[in-house]
Amino acid sequence: MQVKIIDHPLIQHKLTLIRDIKTGPKEFRELLEEVAMLMAYELTRNLPLEETEIETPVAKCCCKVLSGKKLGVVPILRAGLGMVNGVLRLIPAAKVGHVGVYRDPETLKPVEYYCKLPTDVAEREFIVIDPMLATGGSSAATIDMLKRKGAKHIKLMCLVAAPEGVHYINEQHPDVEVYTAAVDDHLNDHGYIVPGLGDAGDRIFGTK
Ligand code: URA
């Protein structure tokens, strides 16, 4: 299984609070945003740098700046929205696309119902955000679609993953690195990650 588990103590501590059934929507949203920001730090660890000359109050010097790589963030609706602002706090210049995917109850195949992406897909590096990587169907479909539109560099950011979802992404998209704060035990018969945290969308938006 190819997956990068981000095991920073702050992330693990906050994830435990997020999982707790006693955590209400306000705190859940705040924690999720904080975790997303910390995870974005890891996902952007290898961004290329270049030298630039600046002048400090003391002397001229050559210093490093990001080499202008264009980034795109694509939350999968609706739970992905809960992590976007955390990522944007670290990468404010990133463009944000949105993708909505549901699973057809008859074919069980993912169907895209909404898609709005930056115009220059082929020139960007993308972070697809799917907090709960369950079967992996929605993420794989979103990555398929980004690739069809020309995207070449894609990372997948999750909060909690099921082994089934990680395997599916590894199989369908071996070039896509999967980052998560935890790989849980399994998926139950209703498609929930166990132990997981319940329905991430409901917990973010208080719809249950
Ligand atoms: N989506 C969720 O929100 N939770 C799960 O456990 C699985 C999919």
Automatic annotation (TrEMBL):
<dbReference type="InterPro" id="IPR005765">
    <property type="entry name" value="UPRT"/>
</dbReference>
<protein>
    <recommendedName>
        <fullName>Uracil phosphoribosyltransferase</fullName>
        <ecNumber>2.4.2.9</ecNumber>
    </recommendedName>
</protein>
<dbReference type="GO" id="GO:0005525">
    <property type="term" value="F:GTP binding"/>
</dbReference>
<dbReference type="GO" id="GO:0006223">
    <property type="term" value="P:uracil salvage"/>
</dbReference>
<dbReference type="Pfam" id="PF14681">
    <property type="entry name" value="UPRTase"/>
</dbReference>
<dbReference type="InterPro" id="IPR029057">
    <property type="entry name" value="PRTase-like"/>
</dbReference>
<feature type="binding site">
    <location>
        <position position="78"/>
    </location>
    <ligand>
        <name>5-phospho-alpha-D-ribose 1-diphosphate</name>
    </ligand>
</feature>
<dbReference type="GO" id="GO:0004845">
    <property type="term" value="F:uracil phosphoribosyltransferase activity"/>
</dbReference>
<comment type="function">
    <text>Catalyzes the conversion of uracil and 5-phospho-alpha-D-ribose 1-diphosphate (PRPP) to UMP and diphosphate.</text>
</comment>
<dbReference type="GO" id="GO:0005737">
    <property type="term" value="C:cytoplasm"/>
</dbReference>
<keyword id="KW-0547">Nucleotide-binding</keyword>
<feature type="binding site">
    <location>
        <begin position="198"/>
        <end position="200"/>
    </location>
    <ligand>
        <name>uracil</name>
    </ligand>
</feature>
<keyword id="KW-0342">GTP-binding</keyword>
<keyword id="KW-0328">Glycosyltransferase</keyword>
<comment type="similarity">
    <text>Belongs to the UPRTase family.</text>
</comment>
<comment type="pathway">
    <text>Pyrimidine metabolism; UMP biosynthesis via salvage pathway; UMP from uracil: step 1/1.</text>
</comment>
<keyword id="KW-0808">Transferase</keyword>
<dbReference type="InterPro" id="IPR050054">
    <property type="entry name" value="UPRTase/APRTase"/>
</dbReference>
<feature type="binding site">
    <location>
        <begin position="130"/>
        <end position="138"/>
    </location>
    <ligand>
        <name>5-phospho-alpha-D-ribose 1-diphosphate</name>
    </ligand>
</feature>
<keyword id="KW-0021">Allosteric enzyme</keyword>
<feature type="binding site">
    <location>
        <position position="103"/>
    </location>
    <ligand>
        <name>5-phospho-alpha-D-ribose 1-diphosphate</name>
    </ligand>
</feature>
<dbReference type="InterPro" id="IPR000836">
    <property type="entry name" value="PRTase_dom"/>
</dbReference>
<dbReference type="GO" id="GO:0000287">
    <property type="term" value="F:magnesium ion binding"/>
</dbReference>
<dbReference type="InterPro" id="IPR034332">
    <property type="entry name" value="Upp_B"/>
</dbReference>
<feature type="binding site">
    <location>
        <position position="193"/>
    </location>
    <ligand>
        <name>uracil</name>
    </ligand>
</feature>
<feature type="domain" description="Phosphoribosyltransferase">
    <location>
        <begin position="6"/>
        <end position="207"/>
    </location>
</feature>
<dbReference type="GO" id="GO:0044206">
    <property type="term" value="P:UMP salvage"/>
</dbReference>
<keyword id="KW-0460">Magnesium</keyword>
<feature type="binding site">
    <location>
        <position position="199"/>
    </location>
    <ligand>
        <name>5-phospho-alpha-D-ribose 1-diphosphate</name>
    </ligand>
</feature>
